[in-house]
Amino acid sequence: MAIxxxxxELAGTSAADIAExxxxxxxxxxxxxxxxxxxxxxPRRGNAxxxxxxxxxxxxxxVHREAHGFIAGEVIEVALSAVEAFLGRINDPEPGSGQILGxxxxxxxxxxxxxxxxxxxxxxxxxxxxxxxxxxxHDSVVRRCLGQSDGREVKHTGDGIMATFxxxxxxxxxxxxxxxxxxxxNDGNPEPIHVRIGLDCGEPIEDSNDLFGSTVQxxxxxxxxxxxxxxxVSENIFREFGASDIFVHATQRKLKxxxxxxxxxxxxxxxxxxx
Length: 275
Known about the structure:
The protein is of the alpha+beta class and 275 residues long. It is 38% helix and 28% strand. It is built from eight helices and 13 strands. A seven-stranded mixed beta sheet has the order 6-7-5-8-11-13-12. A four-stranded antiparallel beta sheet has the order 2-3-1-4. Strands 9-10 form a two-stranded antiparallel ribbon. A hairpin with a 4-residue loop joins strand 2 and strand 3. The protein is elongated. The protein starts with a strand and ends in an 8-residue tail after the last strand.
């Protein structure tokens, strides 16, 4: 048996329809020797994702075909640990009062990267031990902000952290909170820590306990393109966040790995009301 995640394009289908389809999968799954673990539905984009324990992807598709006819457009094998780190759960949650199962989560994610500015020079100047302590201080600040913003750490990059969010708004607010926390940390500190942050949103894919795809690549490139104490975001983030007054200096940037210039925005976190 293996774990598979499939993706359905179901624009125009309601959350109630998806919940009923999932129930029908559960009703007949034993006939095929599979187990549907959970699913996610993003009504705004009409995307549904199913997580299933099955002998092969064809068998999982057979259950969908017989149960309701919603055949997945894409099926990939995944690792449970990576799914849990990315999406937060691997089993159906208990719906709250008045909540339809399936409205809990979607496949859309915001990706955030932090990077300590001048980390190589910092190590050369301070030595490995002191530089390591400053990296730990960075990690503590970022992880505390992630905890306050419902963000999930995907991995440590050596001098930064990659994180994922179910909500674009929470990702942007977390980025601003991180910069404000470092501003407080640096006040009067003889060894300040300056970070840059990049964000994009989309539907990344997972493999071997990591996330991949153009969303991850763009977020990383935006982080690398940012200057000290800056937050740089993609056009996707700008459009989804909605509060355009906090985004300034829209520019076309040529980023490594992208054939065409990318429209990027700087987030004016110094004037944003985030505590």
